[in-house]
Every structure is written in structure tokens, then in C-alpha cells.
Amino acid sequence: QVQLVESGGGLVQAGGSLRLSCAASRRTFSTVGWFRQAPGKEREFVAATTFTGGNTYYQDSVKDRFTISRDNAKNTVYLQMNSLKPEDTAVYYCAAAQLIWNPRAANLYDYWGQGTQVTVSS
Q1: Cα-flanking dihedrals φ and ψ of residue 107, to 5°?
Q2: Which among 13, 62, 69, 75 has most CB atoms closer than 10 A?
Q3: Percentage, residues of the chain above pLDDT 90
Q4: 44: helix, coil or strand?
């Protein structure tokens, strides 16, 4: 069983930056993704990376502003978020999975963190 812990959320003004971290108790997975959910909205894909091949995936609306990266030694995945907008306000979740065919699909992930709140003020 894998435990995922997110950190780095907070309150920031529009145009600011935050870096989220996702620490895993152990690496038994091949894919790590970030998802977010705003109040009253469905959970949506943000970004993902694979540990085989180092592929990255992004939602179109964040591709030019967010960067996903990983530190294998620390068993941690990061999400650097720049030029934040009020529309980015949500609870951000880290998720992990073994080999899956579509890293953008939330229902394919096996493990989820409890989330970290990101609030962007106008």
C-alpha cells in the first residue's frame, strides 16, 4: 500500500507562484498525476509524468504555466505553478498508478493523497 502526502498549497495573489510536492512512502508505481477539484466542480486532470521514459502530460490550460518534475532519490513529484489565476483555485490532489494507458483519466489511478488547498486571489 502506497501513502501519498501533498504539501505546498496556500494563498497567493494572481500572477504569483506556488510549488506543490507529492511525497510517496515507497515507489511501487509507474505514473504520478496531479488533479484538482473546485467547489461544485468535477475533478479535472492537471499534469502527469511517467517514471519509464520520463513522459509528461498537461492540461492545455496550464501547459505554458505549470511544470511537473520528479526527484527519484526523494521519491517526490513536484508541480511548479507560475502565473497563477483565480481560475486555478481548487484542492489539488496527487495520484499514483502502475502502468496505465491514459494518464489523464482519474479513474485509472490506484492511490490518492488527501489534497492541498490552493487559493488564488484577484
Answers
A1: -70, -10
A2: 62
A3: 80
A4: strand
